Amino acid sequence: SSSSGVFGKIVYPTGNTSVFAVNEVINGVQSKPFVSTLSDGTIVVVWQSDGIDSAGFGIAARVFGSEGVPLTEQFLVNSQNQMGDQKNAVVKGSLGSGFVIAFESIENGQSDVYARLYDLFGNPIGNDFLVNGSFVLGNQKISSVIELLSGKYVVVFEGEGIDSSLSGIGAKVL
């Protein structure tokens, strides 16, 4: 069985560096990390993890202090979607209220975009939920997440069935 890990590296203004392990699960492939910082310097890392949930790839995350010290254990993001694969996660930190993680969920050849909200301490605020809406058919892929001045997030996705073209752009305010 093949294994890989996710590591972080802090580069200080002096040029010194500090490397730290991100994932706690050591079996299976750990890949495609994405990082965001919160307003207090806290670091949030998300990645896709083979075997973290009941089927295929799932989305894992972990919160670290600004020096790379773990503040949480590794946790599963996709609480509702554990069939098929969950991949290509992105995370966006808020200026004061926490963060959001968005990801693609692929089942039976169909991909949809889901998201889950968290507080500053990495505690989930509800379950993960469908972003692109059940009215959008076809494959949907995550593009980006931004924060509005109001503190709300906008998840932008691309995919089929959004408009009359084969590939449109959609967005949802969270």
How would the blueprint of this fold be written?
Elements: E1 7-11, E2 17-21, E3 30-37, E4 43-50, E5 57-64, E6 75-76, E7 85-93, E8 99-107, E9 110-118, E10 129-130, E11 140-147, E12 153-159, E13 168-173
Antiparallel strand pairs: 1-2, 3-4, 4-5, 5-6, 7-8, 8-9, 9-10, 11-12, 12-13
Written account of the structure:
- This protein is mostly beta strands and 174 residues long.
- Helix content is 0%, strand content 49%.
- The protein is globular, with a radius of gyration of 16 Å.
- It starts with 6 loop residues before the first strand and ends with a strand.
The CA-CA distance between the termini, in Å, is 39 Å
One letter per element, helices H and strands E, the order comes to EEEEEEEEEEEEE
What is the strand tally? Answer: 13
Radius of gyration: 16 Å
Structural class: mainly beta
What percentage of residues falls in helices of 4 or more residues? under 10%
Uncertain residue ranges: none
**How would the global form be characterised?**
globular
